[in-house]
Each structure stands twice: as structure tokens, then as C-alpha cells.
Amino acid sequence: MKVAIMINTSWNIYNFRRGLIETLIKRGDEVVAIAPKDDYSGKLEEIGCRFRHLDMSASGMNPATDFGLMVKMRKVLKEEQPDILLTYTIKPNIYGSLVCGNLKIPCICNVSGLGTVFLWKGTVKKIAVGLYKRAFKKNSWVFFQNNEDRDDFLKFIPISKDKTSLLPGSGINTTHFQPMKVEPNKVPVFTMIGRLIVEKGVYDFIEAIKIVKKKKPDTHFRLIGELDETHSRSIQRAELDSWLADELIEYVPHLSDVRDAVATSDVIVLPSYREGTPRTLLEAGAMGKAMIATDVPGCRHVVEDGENGFLCKLQSPKDLAAKMLLYLSLSKEEQNQLSINSRNLIVEKFDERLVIDEYLKLIDQFAL
After folding, report:
1. What is the C-alpha to C-alpha distance for residues 289 and 341, in angstroms, rounded to an integer?
2. Cβ neighbourhood burial of 186 (10 Å; 0-12, 13-18, 19+)
3. Rounded Cα distance, 255 and 224, in Å
4. For residue 25, how far is the Cα from the chain centroid?
5. What are the tens digits of pLDDT across the range 44-86?
6. Is 74 in contact with 102 (CB distance < 8 Å)?
7. Contact of 4 with 17, CB cutoff 8 Å
8. pTM > 0.90: yes or no
9. Bridge partners of 83?
10. What residues contact residue 109 under an 8 Å CB cut-off, 6+ apart?
11. Which residues are bridge partners to 365 per DSSP?
């Protein structure tokens, strides 16, 4: 069987779908990765994939360039003739479904979060909804990562709920991500990992830091993530520089392996506006870290308030600061229990084996 996987970056395929690829190859399937070429394209070939370059912008929707993308996508899929296509992220989900419908190739989509187009009103949202309506009539199955996302999506996109199901995110390799022995921090360290855009709650994190530092000045804060000023909702370099100048944060650009950064943190913070199932929290929980996140879809499925961390109100720096101060008020025994609970929850509910098994079942059901 030939299985094609299409995502908007090779990095994404390698880091989030490697377990699925290795399982497919091990059972004798051929796997073709279709994505823009980057530093991880060669790594995909090293684990046994064939790689096909497909030039694709990860953000923005332009009818002219996206039509060109669909033409290129059709060419690649017509040449490869896979028995099934697995798609992730908005453009592969939409245009992959449309092309597969035309070529009569089964297609399984994964909606890993509703994204900014569903959070904001306007023309972009109308275009995206219209494209989804056309595209998702063509595919075989749609995975969602939480019930709220599925219910909200189906309000806009009239597809049968019977051809959808839920997954625990991308799953997490709980052997690769596990607690690491490190020297205890001299001061508490709170770390936020994510894209530096408004919807990830970066501004809320910064404002909360200012509140906490007034009461607990010997607390360290770390911000990890790529700055992309071409993104319409990105923070600006001048803002980041001002935070550094004020010694509010330690800044670390995008990391290919976050394990050391997570291991040297006491708490992982994600004040995001909405998520599918946040990978950052899965990694943190698997490594036995307490977490603080917003009480929104996606986040509240990984963080159980009072059990493995705390939930804070959406877009409320004051409440986020209160939850960080609450963690600091706990005894060492109470903090350690949060960490133990985190690891146990992820192993029980979010191990990647659960995700891989669901994919294998549907691949075998729908493949030509």
C-alpha cells in the first residue's frame, strides 16, 4: 500500500508524525511525504520515506497563489497515485480534499485546531468557510482533537458527524518525552513555548510576569518560540527587544528539541486563546511538569485544574499571575504531586500509540 502524507512543513511531518510513518513502513507500506523542502526533508528520507517537494506557504490565503498550489498538488498526486492521502493543517486539508475528490483518491483529514480564521470575523473567514464546505464533501474521514472544535466546526461546515471522530492530539512518544534528572533550579522557572503571535497569549504572559515580579522578584521567566513578523498577528521585534531590555524574560528562538528547556523549567505556561490539543502541553506533561493554561478548548483537556496544574481565565493576565503565584505558594510535596499527576495523565490518555492505532484502522478501511 502507498500512503501519502501532506503537511505545510517537513519539520511538522518529522516531529509530529514520525511514529505513524515508522509504523507504516515497518508493516510494509510505502510512505511518501509531500511538503515544502526544509532541513527535515532529508531526515524523512533517512527513516525510509520518499520525499516530494511541494512549495506551499504555511500562512495567508491568496486565491491566485492557492490555485497554483492546487495545480501543483494535483500534478504530484496524479504522478504518485497513492492508495490514500493523510492531510494536516489548513491548506493541505482543503486543497488536498478537493484534488483527491477529483482524482478519486481516499483522503483522511486532521483538523488539529480551528485556527485564527475561526477566531476572527471578516473576509478571510468567509473564504475559508466556503472552501471547507466544498472540500470536505470530498474526503473520506475527518479527525478532530476535541469535542468543542468538532461541534463548532460543524456549525459552519455541514458534514456528517458520522464521518468524524476524535483523537488525543498528535499523541506523544512517552518514551522520548519522559522525566529527566536535572539540578533543581535556584529560583522558580516558568516557561512559555509557542509561536510568538497574539492568539498564543504572549502579551498576557508578559503582563502577568510584571504582576508576579512585583511580589516574587526572584522568579525567572523564559519565552521560547520563533518570531515571524510576516505573520499578520505576530508580535514585533521592537516589543521583544523592550521585554529583554526590561529583563522580564529570557528569550530562546525556535528549538528543534525542547526537552532540555522543559526539563530545566518548573512550570510550562500556555495562555493560548484556543487549541486543538496543544503539543507543548503534551510534551511538558509527559516530562512530568506542572502546567498553567487558559480554560479554553484543547488546553483544558490536558490540564486538569488542581490535579496537574491550574487553569486561568482567557485573556486575563491578572488571573494568570494569580495561578503562577498559587503554584509558588505550594509546598514542595504539593508541587511534586502535580508533576507526578502530569506524567500519569499523559501516559494514560495521550500516548501516540492510541493515535497510530486509529489511523491504521481507517487507512485499512478506506485505502484503494
Report:
1. 9
2. exposed
3. 8
4. 24
5. 999 999 999 999 986 666 667 888 999 999 999 999 999 999 9
6. yes
7. no
8. no
9. none
10. 87, 88, 93, 96, 97, 136, 139, 141, 142, 143
11. none
